[in-house]
Design brief:
CATH architecture: 3-Layer(aba) Sandwich
Number of helices: 6
CATH topology: Collagenase (Catalytic Domain)
Radius of gyration: 16 Å
Number of strands: 10
């Protein structure tokens, strides 16, 4: 049964070996505000964040997760949940189910005409359906869906690939690869995402992370029952 993809912790500040290619000296650090409207629960959500963070770490991008309530004014030790800036601070919202799209839609990212965007939604009901059908844990499915949608935001328009995390259709084997930690961004996708971050983005977040004690790091996506 294919999966139709229509539509991430202490921050480690390491030198980027590709500096000669014009990348910032410090590895990019991405902050993500996560709003658990569906009440996934702390254990599953943190495991999902760990999975997504591992995927991004393989791409040489560190992720700081801000676990936010529905209170838009909430301030965490890692920043204000409502802060948003492209590409350094993005938002993910986990809703119980989709509205206005097919029930099989797992997630959706929102981009402007220039391919940039800061917001993505994920839908728990469809994720649990995938868990049931694939026998892969909900946190693993959720974590890779988080990485996929954040990937859309960082890669821009037309960012599906022929294989890997960003491919247009996930087969059951892809979720098996996810469960083994092998469903990742390609080298080219990783380079493109890092190139979105300016030196200023990296330096500002590097200073922020260094100043924190115990800092934590850790487009729609649709299940298609087609042939």
């Amino acid at each position: 049964m294919p999966i139709q993809l229509v539509g991430l912790g202490i921050g480690l500040l390491l030198p980027v070996t590709g500096a000669a290619q014009g990348l910032p000296e410090a590895e990019p650090v991405l902050r993500v505000s996560v709003f658990d409207d569906a009440k996934v629960g702390t254990a599953v959500l943190r495991k999902a964040e760990s999975e997504a963070g591992r995927v991004f770490r393989k791409a040489h991008i560190e992720v700081i997760w801000l676990e936010c309530s529905q209170d838009s004014l909430e301030q965490t030790s890692l920043g204000r949940c409502t802060e948003v800036s492209y590409p350094a601070h993005l938002h993910l919202r986990v809703a119980a189910r989709s509205r206005g799209v097919k029930a099989s839609t797992v997630g959706m990212s929102f981009q402007s005409g220039d391919g940039r965007g800061c917001y993505a939604d994920l839908f728990l009901e469809a994720i649990l359906k995938l868990q049931e059908e694939s026998h892969v844990g909900a946190a693993i499915v959720l974590g890779h869906a988080m990485a996929h949608e954040l990937g859309h935001l960082l890669l821009g328009s037309n960012s599906h690939s022929h294989d890997g995390l960003m491919r247009g259709h996930w087969e059951p084997g892809d979720l098996t690869q996810a469960s083994r930690g092998h469903l990742l961004f390609s080298s080219e996708e990783s380079t493109r995402m890092r190139s979105r971050f300016t030196r200023k983005d990296s330096e500002q977040l590097a200073a922020f992370v260094q100043g924190q004690d115990g800092a934590q790091h850790a487009a729609p996506l649709e299940a298609d029952k087609g042939n």
